[in-house]
Design goal:
Layout lengths: L3 H8 L3 H8 L2 H9 L6 E5 L2 E4 L4 E4 L2 H4 L8 H12 L14 H9 L8 E5 L2 H16 L3 E5 L8 H5 L4 H4 L9 E4 L4 H8 L4 E6 L14 H12 L2 E5 L23 E4 L11 E5 L1 H7 L17 H16 L2 H22 L3 E7 L2 E6 L5 H13 L3 H12 L3 E2 L1 E2 L6 E4 L7 H18 L5 H16 L18
Parallel strand pairs: 3-13, 5-6, 5-7, 7-8, 8-9
Antiparallel strand pairs: 1-2, 2-3, 4-10, 9-10, 11-12, 12-15, 14-15
Helix pairs in contact: 2-3, 5-13, 6-13, 7-12, 10-11, 14-17, 16-17, 16-18
Length: 476
């Protein structure tokens, strides 16, 4: 009889070694260097627990997958029910029992006029779908995207990824694609007036750095796309399902995209699932005949376990009022963190919406701290935030990560079940660690120096990072 617990127990002392040997050797080395090789045994709500019985506040949330919290009993029960029903899963040439139900509920949750759904397995696959939709709908080929955008790492998604550290070494990519600055309507208009653009894809709030647009930007984007016949694609893979204090982030600016890509939190943290919602006329341009009814498809799309997870996730978000909780706890968290800006010269800004929060650090004014800042950044531009994050995890049991390569920004994206007590715990931990940064020489600076020395010694080179760095950034 298969015994999963026994298998886990047999290999519990070899987990990192096996991962490093057979899955990702570079990442395994980095995790060990930065002290992130903790053996977590289980998770619940906003918390992780290790094999020593320690509890951690999870501000990484599986890269914003666990909006409903880890191992939510309602979502787990829904998946168990689906299995107990022995549903005729993945018939392919037959009617899926749950796909239409989830599609209907999603359509009722998103901006108006999005009334068709294509189910995917991930956000990147959704972006690939959106690019194909834009091309089919317009008969054009060029896609415009933003600098610092993150839309996934498959080849088509990578082609509209504005982070060069992820693109390096994988060219040539999909053409033609054009990059414009985020939050710059003039630059966008300059490309759209050329008349060859099929679609413009944008994150309402950029994940890399938590860059928030000006209030007129997204409405202006929508107007320009309408004027020039360009498909307006909104990537809500990370910002969706309550993350920003609205069900979808584009609601903050009242815009209605032509295509919306969603994933991550729709899974409930259990079964990979994503979706592309589009206006019907776009959908009909793709599936434009009986002989093309499966011209775009994916094997595991619409699978019953994923659909059950998605339905239960929508139920939990509504019943537990998690969208409103994200708004309230996010406001509280940013208010309390904002007070630290007045006390600590290294902390320059706290920004965000809902529970998508960034802490941006910058060069201090005092001479001693400026010396430390300059020294650490000369050694490696990615290490300052990691030097904060290590004691934040090991001493204060708060898990978070850097928001991008070569930027001094820490991002907090915890589950939306966060409580006032959790907020206080996070703020107290950051207060202590940031306070320690203002002693030079001091423990945080020593951590940064050690990281740089170890990275150079080991010549670790994680995917997408320059040789020597050990700052693994949060993936959007």
């Amino acid at each position: 009889m298969f015994d999963l617990q026994a298998l886990i127990d047999q290999n519990q002392s070899q987990e990192l070694a096996l991962f490093g040997r057979h899955v990702n050797p570079a990442l395994a080395k980095v995790l060990k260097i930065i002290g992130y090789d903790i053996r977590y045994t289980h998770g619940r709500g906003a918390y992780l627990f290790d094999d020593q019985g320690n509890r951690y506040v999870d501000c990484l949330g599986g890269y914003a997958v666990h909006n409903c919290g880890r191992n939510h009993p309602t979502i787990r029960s829904a998946i168990q029910q689906a299995m107990d029903l022995d549903l005729p899963n993945l018939i392919k040439m037959g009617t899926p029992r749950l796909a239409g139900v989830l599609a209907k509920q999603l359509i009722e949750s998103v901006p108006e006029d999005l009334d068709t759904v294509f189910f995917t397995n991930s956000g990147a696959e959704g972006v690939e779908t959106a690019v194909k939709y834009a091309r089919a709908a317009t008969g054009r080929s060029r896609i415009v995207h933003c600098e610092k955008a993150f839309h996934g790492l498959t080849m088509g998604a990578l082609s509209v990824n504005g982070c060069p550290e992820f693109r390096e070494g994988f060219g040539p990519l999909l053409e033609p694609c054009t990059e414009v600055p985020f939050n710059d309507l003039t630059a966008l208009e300059r490309e759209l007036i050329r008349g060859d653009v099929a679609g413009f894809i944008v994150e309402p709030i950029q994940g890399k750095g938590v860059n928030i647009p000006a209030d007129d930007y997204l409405p202006g984007v929508e107007a320009l796309c309408r004027e020039h016949g360009v498909i307006f694609i909104v990537d809500e893979v990370q910002t969706g399902f309550g993350r920003t204090g609205k069900m979808f982030a584009c609601e903050h600016w009242g815009v209605a995209p032509d295509v919306m890509v969603i994933a991550k939190a729709l899974s409930g943290g259990y079964v990979p699932v994503g979706a592309v919602l589009s206006k019907r006329w776009i959908h009909e341009k793709v599936f434009n005949g009986l002989d093309r009814c499966v011209v775009h498809s994916t094997t595991f799309g619409q699978n019953d376990l994923a659909m059950a997870a998605g339905l239960a996730t929508l139920y939990v978000l509504k019943e537990e009022r998690l969208v409103g909780n994200a708004a309230a706890m996010g406001n509280l968290l940013m208010t309390k963190l904002g007070e630290l800006c007045d006390r600590y010269e290294l902390l320059h800004e706290v920004r965000g919406k809902g529970l998508m929060v960034a802490l941006e650090f910058g060069s201090p004014k005092s001479l001693k701290l400026k010396m430390g800042w300059s020294l650490l950044h000369k050694l490696d531009q990615s290490l300052f935030c990691q030097a904060i994050l290590i004691p934040l995890l090991t001493e204060h049991h708060v898990l978070a990560q850097v928001a991008g390569h070569h930027i001094d920004v820490i991002k907090l994206i915890p589950p939306l079940v966060l409580t006032i007590q959790d907020v206080d715990e996070i703020v107290a931990a950051l207060d202590a660690v940031i306070g320690a940064c203002h002693r030079f020489p001091g423990p945080v600076w020593e951590v940064g120096k050690r990281l740089s020395q170890q990275a150079i010694k080991r010549a670790v080179k994680p995917q997408g990072a320059q040789s020597g760095t050990v700052a693994v950034t949060e993936r959007s």
